[in-house]
Recover the amino acids of this structure.
């Protein structure tokens, strides 16, 4: 499916969401945000989709808010726009399927936060990231105030927010924010290779892993232990668990069916 600002393509068990405003470095538009939300709805209801890949067309991943149109909207319009962005971020976290960001060029402002909302990030070696909000007299939106401090600590996060200085991908890789650094020309190839490997895994178990890990940041140890117990009790009845045990005994690679 193609919308002007977002291209949605199913590639086997992988759903590819391509941000498609290259002339604006894929800055957000209402259509783009709605497209991502609708794509995630499709992924949640389509049992054939096991992994979602998010990337950007043209020279960059995403520049975040569209600076060219900033200052033209009133407070009500801004409130509604950020509400839709919040819905997008929450939909990403609620989707019990892995989401992989493939970042090249620049990821700035809420574009940086869009990548942080994904479960894994692959980045081109020459890419850069910036919490650029302070340059236009704003605070973070899109969840950056939540995601980044949990990954790198409050002191480093505050420096990135206060200074708005672009951070090389390698620095974020060293800090554990980025999973893999790859040459720019190999970014999508390596992303799809990783996505395919994950898509061949036990979908229900992976979805539950995502849910429990995300919940662990706000839950107590008692709550996580109980969530693990309940989830494990359910998963031992699945066909994928039985297939995993059989494959282990037969010394072969398991063929999971997400059942």
């Amino acid at each position: 499916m193609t919308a002007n600002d977002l291209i949605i393509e199913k590639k086997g068990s992988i759903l590819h969401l391509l941000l498609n405003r290259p002339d604006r470095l894929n800055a957000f538009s209402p259509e783009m945000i709605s497209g991502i939300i609708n794509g995630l709805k499709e992924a949640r209801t389509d049992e054939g989709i096991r992994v979602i890949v998010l990337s950007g067309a043209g020279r960059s991943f995403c520049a975040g808010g569209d600076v060219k149109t900033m200052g033209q909207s009133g407070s009500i319009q801004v409130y509604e726009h950020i509400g839709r962005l919040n819905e997008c971020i929450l939909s990403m976290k609620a989707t019990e399927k892995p989401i992989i960001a493939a970042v090249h060029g620049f990821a700035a402002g809420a574009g940086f936060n869009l990548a942080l909302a994904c479960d894994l990030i692959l980045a081109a070696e020459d890419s850069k990231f910036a919490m650029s909000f302070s340059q236009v007299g704003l605070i973070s939106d899109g969840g950056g105030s939540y995601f980044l401090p949990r990954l790198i600590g409050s002191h480093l996060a505050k420096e990135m927010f206060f200074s708005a200085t672009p951070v090389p991908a390698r620095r974020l890789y060293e800090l554990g924010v980025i999973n893999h650094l790859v040459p720019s020309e190999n970014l999508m190839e390596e992303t799809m290779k990783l996505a395919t490997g994950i898509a061949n895994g036990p979908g229900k178990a992976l979805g539950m892993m995502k849910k429990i890990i995300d919940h662990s940041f706000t839950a107590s140890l008692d709550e996580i232990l109980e969530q693990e117990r309940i989830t494990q009790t359910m998963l031992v009845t699945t066909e994928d668990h039985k297939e995993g045990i059989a494959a282990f005994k037969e010394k072969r690679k398991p063929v999971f069916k997400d059942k």
